Amino acid sequence: MTGAVILALLPVILLIGLGAWLRRSGFLAAGFWPQAERLCYFVLLPALFVHGLSTAPLHALPVGVMAVTLIGAILVVAGLVLAAHRLRPIDGPAFTSVFQGSIRFNNYAAVTVAAGLFGAQGIALAALCNAAMVPTVNVLCILVFARYGQARLDLGGVLRQIATNPLILGCAGGMLLQFGGLALPPGLDQALRALGAASLPLGLLCVGAALDFGSVRSWVRPVAGSAAVRFLVMPGVTLAIGSALGLGGEALVVALLVQAMPTASSAYILARQLGGDAPLMAGITASQTALAALAVPAVLTVLAP
């Protein structure tokens, strides 16, 4: 299990490192990175969600119980993070990064590890997790950005952000196709698959390019706090809810696996686009990815049935 997790996370770590080198070496012009982030946010990530959610094999899986377990855990943990912020507040943009680092997950690594553990069944279960979690996480993050980001929004602005957010629209489109029993046309299917696949390397390169190692000292508390929630609190809450609902076997293991994954590069893209603390978000992403090689096997060893 430890080997499968490390193999899944190693490319993520290497791509972040490459992005940091490319930015600092000047190999690419500084103006390239904002445009790359924009491409990821408006084109590549929505394509990933449309294709992934529309083609996920969800039949014969415990859809209802897994969805309630995962969404319930996310809502509980989001409430705990908000309550903790009221007790020990930090500045708004930094809190958006801590919040994303606490509830957002790396779905690429999750699918890879689930496939390594359980084969096709693991892929199907991970796809179900994506279908339940991606829309939930994105709506919650939009609401937090509206309240704590640099650009504060009124109710109308929040609704517009949700209704026009490309990540949420991608999720909605994928689920509409999935539950409507509609298939992507052959040419569009391949195009969306290729665009979605491109979101992983480019997004991680952008994360590496944004790392500011001169700010490491100021990152210690938020990085440690988000990592504790991501690797300890989230899996623990998921186990409690899943066990209470009778979720077990491979479904519970995959649910725990996904909830223990480090945060994704899309968190950084969202922070850049919606007024969060993007350098801190890059630091949280890179730190959690490095920690995950030890944390994820530990979580599964201790909590998995």
TrEMBL record:
Name assigned to this protein: AEC family transporter
List membrane-spanning regions.
Answer: 6-24, 36-54, 60-84, 105-126, 132-150, 162-184, 190-211, 283-304
Location(s), subcellular: Cell membrane
User: Do you know which Pfam families this protein is assigned to?
Assistant: Mem_trans
Q: Does the keyword Protein biosynthesis apply?
A: no
GO CC terms of this entry: plasma membrane
Known Gene3D superfamilies for this protein?
1.20.1530.20
Provenance organism: Rhodovastum atsumiense
Q: Which GO terms describe its biological process?
A: transmembrane transport
Record keywords, A-Z: Cell membrane, Membrane, Transmembrane, Transmembrane helix, Transport
